[in-house]
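Acyl-CoA dehydrogenase C-terminal domain-containing protein (Penicilliopsis zonata CBS 506.65), 427 aa
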Amino acid sequence: MTQEVPSTDPAVYNAYKEKWAVAPTTAPEWLTRAREVADVLATDAALRDQDNKSPVAEVTLLKHSGLLKILGPTKYGGGAQSWDVACKVVREVARGDGSIGMLLGYHLLWSTTANVVGTPEQADRLHERILTNNYFVGAAVNPRDDDLKITREGDEIIFNGFKGFTTGGAVSDLMVLEGVLEGTELHVFALVETRQPGLSFLHNWNNIGLRLTESGSVRISDVRAPWADALGYDAATQQPLPEILLIQYPSILLPTLQLIFCNFYLGIARGALETGKDYTTRTTRPWPYGGGETASTATDEFYILERYGKWLAHLRAAEALADRAGEELATLYARHAVDHAGLTAAERGELAEWVASVKVVATDVGLEVSSGVFEVTGARATSRKVGLDRFWRDIRTHTLHDPVAYKQRELGRYLLLGEYPAPSWYT
């Protein structure tokens, strides 16, 4: 049973349900909608970050915007957009609020998991359920925790255990659970209803960054799902389908997730740059003790112009790299939308290295911009009211998710030895 905790009020966003009643239909329209959402979130992002309330209202805003449906099939009200567009949308939302950009990105992955590891029938059934109800999807799949234990009972599987991280879980409608079937080494994914006695959220996420992601822990006690919902399994035999178990296609789930990470890093960095620019142009004063001729405004200061110019160039380069990786991802999904078995290890490996390249660059640029922005805004910009610190805290928090040094080593082996990384929970 989920305890009562302070949460944001969905009523503050009531007007957007009508304003955004008509869903976008083209990629430019989806990006425009994402910018609108980011602008709404940015108005009070610093205050909401400090309050650290459960993001019920923010998830409601995402539902009003239609962005939760961007990848789904049109027959159920989805946007039928490709992953490169979805990644840009995540980046835009993160510009306004990194936590909500992260929630959106995770939802897009978990709500389409059946496309990758499930059967066509399972994917279609889940699309209908998620899209027609405008559901938000969370997950308890952190692989470094002990796996959930799954037992069989007739036509059902039963999950038990504990997960330390469950991004978006406590504010979700459905949860992806994953564990190991008792007596085997077989992993099982299934989506279950969030609001049930067997899921007990601890609401213990109080970290320095991404404070509105509800990424805390959950206890899972006797949560049941029918074998028909075990993704990629035959309900009659209760065994994984060979055509899913023995192919590369399910392994693209992880490069997809890693590219989502990269895009919300870059969105947060762009938010830091824009917030810093606004503060510098309106508030920052020139330094009068530098010797020689004193600049009349902060925007005449050589070092300020130089820093902003450098960051803009590097951020644009990182965004271009992310867009290229997004195109590679979308192309691979489109090429193998029907012929999953045709995906080769080389195709998967090339995609993973495009994504690894983005991860390295997005981490470097994001940390540099979000920490360096204080140097061009001044001491008064450290006020909590300004909230510039949230950008660095958000990027710093998530870039520790998995060490970027391993991505750099991976790229080195790819370049020098021609090796592709073995598919894993982090590659």
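The beta strands are 137-140, 148-153, 156-163, 174-181, 187-193, 199-201, 218-226, 233-234, 239-240. The radius of gyration is 22 Å. ok done for today
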